[in-house]
Structures are given as C-alpha cells and as structure tokens.
Write a structure and sequence with these properties.
- This protein is mostly helical.
- It folds into two domains: 76 residues, Rna Polymerase Sigma Factor, Chain: A (Orthogonal Bundle), CATH 1.10.1740; 83 residues, Arc Repressor Mutant, subunit A (Orthogonal Bundle).
- It contains eight helices and no strands.
C-alpha cells in the first residue's frame, strides 16, 4: 500500500458515514445512499492522477455526493413516472385492462400530490424542463425545485409501491 492508498483509506473511513447520512436525507433509502457514496469514492480514486480539487476536500465530497444523489433520484423518477413504466407494467400484467388500471392509479397518485409539488414534478418529468428553467418560470429557488421533486418522488415511490404490492398480491391469487 502506497501513501496515497493509506490517505485514501483514512479519508474513506472519516467521511463514508457522514456522507451516507447526507445522501440518505434525499434518497430515504440507506442502501441507495451507501451506493451513491461508494460511487463517489470510486470515481475519486479512479481520477486521482488528474483530479484537482479547488475547494476543501469536505466541500468537494459533499457536493459530489449531492450531485450523484440528484442524478440517481432523477433516474429513479423516470423509472417510476414514464420512462420504464411500460416495461414494468408489461412484466407484471397479463391483461390490458389491468395495465390501464395500474397506469390510471399512477396518474391518480401524481394528481394527489400537493399542488406546488405536482406542478414542479410535471414540469420536470412531462415537460422536460431542467431545475433552473422551472425555478425561473415559477419564480422560486433551484433548491425549492429540488426539494419539491424529492418530495414528489418520495410520495410517489410510497404510493406506487403500495399499489404494485396490491396488484402483485391479487395476481398471485389468480391460478
């Protein structure tokens, strides 16, 4: 083990847990938060020969974890709402009526979001606007946009998983 590896291990041990807690505040999923932090450290280690950090190491790590967390949440939201829903629905449903009912329940879950949260979420997912554009259009901060999207994803994840659990239970009862 060279000096860099020893320093890297010490940095990893010092920051892994607090960074995981930080990511978990957004993901509400401990395993996902740990994966995010692991990926940041892996990326940091892989780019060690050419990486230049212009701020404090702690600031850099928190910003990297935040950015990686937001990327993961954005990908997950597309899975929940739109992008991969058809694939999931095709695997789980044998009947087009069941599929239509499930998609209807997802839309009801979106419609049941608090109005501000729903508007931001729809502008992000349906209209394809970036957070900056949404913040300008609604005259709110980018941080508020991020918070509203995270809130929407958390609520939808809970509701969609509940709906899917009932559907799967129902399907399991059918011979």
């Amino acid at each position: 083990m060279n000096d860099y590896d020893i320093e890297f291990k010490a940095m990893y041990l010092q920051f892994f847990k607090p960074l995981t807690v930080f990511s978990h505040k957004y993901t509400h999923d401990l395993e996902l938060a740990e994966d995010v932090v692991q990926n940041v450290f892996l990326s940091l280690y892989d780019s060690r020969n050419h990486l230049k950090i212009h701020s404090s190491l702690k600031s850099y790590l928190y910003k990297a974890v935040y950015n990686q967390t937001m990327d993961v949440l954005k990908r997950e939201s597309r899975k929940i709402y739109g992008m991969n829903t058809n694939e999931m629905v095709q695997e789980e449903f044998r009947d087009p009526m069941e599929e239509a009912e499930f998609e209807h329940k997802i839309q009801l879950a979106v419609d049941a979001l608090p109005q501000g949260c729903r508007n931001v979420f729809i502008m992000s997912r349906n209209d394809g606007l970036c957070n900056k554009d949404i913040s300008i259009k609604l005259n709110i901060s980018i941080r508020t946009v991020e918070t509203q999207i995270s809130k929407a994803l958390r609520i939808l994840r809970e509701r969609v998983y509940t709906i899917l659990a009932f559907v799967l239970l129902f399907l399991a009862m059918i011979p």
